[in-house]
Amino acid sequence: MVVERRDPPFGGSVVFLLMNLPLGVVAFALLTSFTAAGVGTAVVWVGVGLLAVLVLAVRGAARLERARVYALLDRYIELPYLPLPAGRQALRWKARLKDPSTWRDLAYFFLLFPLGVVEFVLVTTFWATSLALTALPIYFRWLPGGAYHFPAEDVRWLTVDSTVEALPWAALGVLFIALSVALTKALAGVHARLAAGLLGPTVAQRHRMERWWLDTEEKNLVAG
């Protein structure tokens, strides 16, 4: 559940979006490796242990991801997990595997890689274009031939070889900066909502947790 609805902070949004690609690559590589190895060796029971490690790792990584969303995007996501039952480990593992939150955590980390690619490309492209255009009146004189050629050195549709000619491009760069800021915050907001949808509790889960806590309080009162 996303408690705060205001726009995410700009600085945190930039850091968050740029982190998503490397984190997505690592998550996708580990998930596919452990899943393939676990399924492939399940018949000799080695795979069962690998898949168990995968489940624990995914749930632990999801906790870290909720903390990252809160730290960088100022969005608090509630934990969706019910307390594990007391008793044998078999019952506790059964509860983990039956918990839909485990599988939604897994889906989130599978999606993080393609989302990270799209977010990284959009953010770096918009910001590189914005800063290049804005700073053009400063650096064009150090380019080959002391001029900037658009779209390329060998295809010269437009040539900028003076500060006056570069000023309209700089103004366009300022406009692109405003667009880049809006795009960065919008992408971060969309990702925060996706994270809340997959890593947070559903309405049904929230109702089950409320009932569990009520039952626990009643049992404590009776026992007291």
Summarize the structure.
With 224 residues, the chain is mainly alpha-helical. The protein has helices at residues 10-40, 46-73, 89-98, 100-134, 136-139, 163-199, 203-223; strands at 148-152, 155-160. The two termini are 34 Å apart.
Report on this model:
- The chain crosses the membrane at residues 12-31, 37-58, 106-128, 166-184.
- Keywords: Membrane, Transmembrane, Transmembrane helix.
- This is Sensor domain-containing protein.
- Residues 16-199 form the Putative sensor domain.
- Pfam families: Sensor.
- The chain has one domain (10-223).
- It has 7 helices and 2 strands, in the order αααααββαα.
- It has helices at 10-40, 46-73, 89-98, 100-134, 136-139, 163-199, 203-223; strands at residues 148-152, 155-160.
- Strand 1 (148-152) and strand 2 form a beta hairpin.
- The mean pLDDT is 88.
- By secondary structure, the chain is mainly alpha-helical.
- The protein has a two-stranded antiparallel ribbon with strand order 1-2.
Key phrases:
224 residues, mainly alpha
Task: Tell me the total number of β-strands.
Answer: 2
Order of SSEs, N→C?
HHHHHEEHH
The amount of beta strand, in percent, is under 5%
Rg is 25 Å
Low-pLDDT stretches are none
The main sheet comes to: 2 strands, antiparallel
The separation of the N and C termini measures 34 Å
Q: What class do helices, strands and sheet pairing give?
A: mainly alpha
Global geometry: elongated
User: What's the helix count?
Assistant: 7
Count the domains.
Answer: 1
* Spatial sequence of strands, sheet with the most strands: 1-2
Q: Estimate the mean pLDDT confidence.
A: 88
Helix content: over 70%
Pfam families: Sensor
Keywords: Membrane, Transmembrane, Transmembrane helix
Protein name: Sensor domain-containing protein
InterPro entries: Put_sensor_dom (IPR025828)
